[in-house]
Amino acid sequence: MSYLMLVISLVLLVVGANWLVDGSAAIARRYHISEYIIGATIVGMGTSTLELVVSVVSGIGGHPEIAIGNVVGSNIFNVFFILGITALMMPIKYTRENIKRDIPLNVGVSIFALILCALGMRFRGEYGLGRIEGVILLVCFALYLWSTMKSERKQQEARRQGVRYPDSDLVAPVETGRYSSMTICVLAIIFGLGGLIFGGDMFVDAASAIAREWGVSEAIIGLTIVAGGTSLPELVSSIIAVTKNKGQMALGNIVGSNIFNLLLILGVSSLVQPLSMGNITFVDWGVMVLSAIMLMVAAVTFKKHQLDRADASILLLLYAAYMAWLVMG
Length: 329
Known about the structure:
By secondary structure, this protein is an all-alpha fold. Helices cover about 80% and strands about 0% of the residues. α4 runs parallel beside α9 (about 230-245) and α7 runs antiparallel to α8. The model is unreliable at about 165-175 (pLDDT under 50).
């Protein structure tokens, strides 16, 4: 029965990702919004809904290791595995805004969340996140959304005045065809997210049940099975995006999801129930920060200003090394 659930969940994920990507791209074209912003907001936050539910429920249910491990493991999986796979299929070009703002912000948020967890030992006697840290993370998330929307409005105004940005070719003409209706676009996004979330939830339930039967610890389940399972929406939607030649949407999906995970999901989870790190180590956090830094390194190595196949191979090798370290541990 568990294997049947896994098959059904994969079908739902693929179908849902197709609808989500097509509907989101159509809205981007209709309103001349960059594909990166659509990926970082609608697609990125939508595909992270499953992580939000799992982390909050795990925290309330007395499983803080799964709540934190889910976020840390998801962010590692998102960059090393998902971007590794997608860039191996098709190199992803960086825009000026990616290099100056988006990728450095991802690094900064990762380090900031790590510092907050470390400060828990001083104020509460254990590493983790309390309600005060939760409020701080949520305020930072609100500021992130505000600054992202403000930057996009600035670029739209510049385009209307005839100023050409280096990434302006990423904004395609108004969509025609089956996604010409705004209602159809919205319905495609809603049903697409529904398929991704429901399919991902089925996968996590089946995989976690099998892992517990094998006697795997909650920390490892959170860092691997739950993190990978809740990141399946990001994986499938990113692969679908690059196959449709929308690399910026795939990049925005991952960077937006990672920031969403750290600021909103950890913020809400720790506000509802203070979270302790337990068996989640600073090595795990360090690998997560390294994954964010590697996106910056990719901008200046091999083919500059893009995540190319050589960079993708390194990301996948680092993920394999991390998985080997977890298994050996």
